[in-house]
Specification:
This protein is an alpha+beta fold and 97 residues long. The chain is built from 5 helices and 2 strands.
Length: 97
Protein backbone atom coordinates (compact mmCIF):
# COMPACT_ATOMS: atom_id res chain seq x y z
CA UNK A 1 0.00 0.00 0.00
CA UNK A 2 1.45 3.35 -1.03
CA UNK A 3 0.12 6.32 0.95
CA UNK A 4 1.44 9.85 0.49
CA UNK A 5 2.09 11.91 3.62
CA UNK A 6 -0.70 14.42 2.83
CA UNK A 7 -3.18 11.56 2.58
CA UNK A 8 -2.63 10.62 6.23
CA UNK A 9 -4.22 13.91 7.30
CA UNK A 10 -7.24 13.26 5.09
CA UNK A 11 -7.48 9.70 6.36
CA UNK A 12 -7.32 10.83 9.99
CA UNK A 13 -10.08 13.38 9.32
CA UNK A 14 -12.22 10.67 7.72
CA UNK A 15 -11.81 8.29 10.65
CA UNK A 16 -12.40 11.09 13.16
CA UNK A 17 -15.90 11.42 11.74
CA UNK A 18 -16.55 7.74 12.43
CA UNK A 19 -15.61 8.23 16.10
CA UNK A 20 -18.91 9.82 17.13
CA UNK A 21 -21.68 7.36 18.13
CA UNK A 22 -24.45 9.64 16.81
CA UNK A 23 -22.78 9.94 13.43
CA UNK A 24 -22.34 6.17 13.30
CA UNK A 25 -26.04 5.69 14.07
CA UNK A 26 -26.96 8.13 11.29
CA UNK A 27 -24.66 6.35 8.83
CA UNK A 28 -26.17 3.03 9.88
CA UNK A 29 -29.73 4.27 9.29
CA UNK A 30 -28.75 5.72 5.91
CA UNK A 31 -27.09 2.44 4.96
CA UNK A 32 -30.59 0.93 4.99
CA UNK A 33 -32.45 3.64 3.06
CA UNK A 34 -32.53 7.32 2.16
CA UNK A 35 -34.16 9.41 4.89
CA UNK A 36 -35.12 12.98 5.71
CA UNK A 37 -34.05 14.75 8.93
CA UNK A 38 -37.41 14.12 10.60
CA UNK A 39 -37.23 10.37 9.92
CA UNK A 40 -33.69 10.13 11.27
CA UNK A 41 -34.57 12.14 14.38
CA UNK A 42 -37.58 9.90 15.08
CA UNK A 43 -35.55 6.71 14.66
CA UNK A 44 -32.74 7.94 16.90
CA UNK A 45 -34.94 9.77 19.42
CA UNK A 46 -33.03 13.02 18.97
CA UNK A 47 -33.99 16.56 18.03
CA UNK A 48 -34.06 17.55 14.38
CA UNK A 49 -31.56 20.34 15.07
CA UNK A 50 -29.07 17.84 16.57
CA UNK A 51 -29.49 15.55 13.57
CA UNK A 52 -29.13 18.47 11.14
CA UNK A 53 -25.88 19.50 12.82
CA UNK A 54 -24.42 16.00 12.51
CA UNK A 55 -25.58 15.71 8.90
CA UNK A 56 -23.77 18.98 8.12
CA UNK A 57 -20.57 17.53 9.57
CA UNK A 58 -21.02 14.32 7.57
CA UNK A 59 -21.76 16.27 4.37
CA UNK A 60 -18.63 18.38 4.80
CA UNK A 61 -16.45 15.27 4.70
CA UNK A 62 -18.50 13.70 1.90
CA UNK A 63 -19.86 10.79 3.90
CA UNK A 64 -23.47 11.72 3.17
CA UNK A 65 -25.22 13.72 0.47
CA UNK A 66 -28.72 15.02 -0.03
CA UNK A 67 -31.20 15.55 -2.82
CA UNK A 68 -34.01 18.09 -2.60
CA UNK A 69 -37.55 16.81 -3.03
CA UNK A 70 -39.62 19.98 -3.02
CA UNK A 71 -38.94 21.65 0.33
CA UNK A 72 -37.60 18.45 1.87
CA UNK A 73 -34.08 17.04 1.60
CA UNK A 74 -33.52 13.28 1.54
CA UNK A 75 -30.15 12.11 2.77
CA UNK A 76 -28.17 9.12 1.59
CA UNK A 77 -24.66 7.77 1.91
CA UNK A 78 -22.27 9.53 -0.44
CA UNK A 79 -21.17 6.23 -2.01
CA UNK A 80 -20.78 2.52 -1.28
CA UNK A 81 -17.36 3.10 0.32
CA UNK A 82 -19.12 4.57 3.36
CA UNK A 83 -21.26 1.45 3.78
CA UNK A 84 -18.15 -0.71 3.36
CA UNK A 85 -16.15 1.26 5.98
CA UNK A 86 -19.03 0.88 8.46
CA UNK A 87 -19.37 -2.84 7.75
CA UNK A 88 -15.63 -3.49 8.12
CA UNK A 89 -15.67 -1.68 11.47
CA UNK A 90 -18.67 -3.67 12.70
CA UNK A 91 -17.05 -6.93 11.56
CA UNK A 92 -13.85 -6.02 13.41
CA UNK A 93 -15.70 -5.14 16.64
CA UNK A 94 -17.68 -8.39 16.54
CA UNK A 95 -14.54 -10.41 15.76
CA UNK A 96 -12.59 -9.01 18.72
CA UNK A 97 -15.22 -9.82 21.36
Amino acid sequence: MNIHSDEFDKLAELYKNFSDPTRLKIIHELSKEDLCVREISERLGMSQSAISHQLRVLRNVRLVKFAKEGKMARYSLDDDHVRYILQIGVDHVKHTR
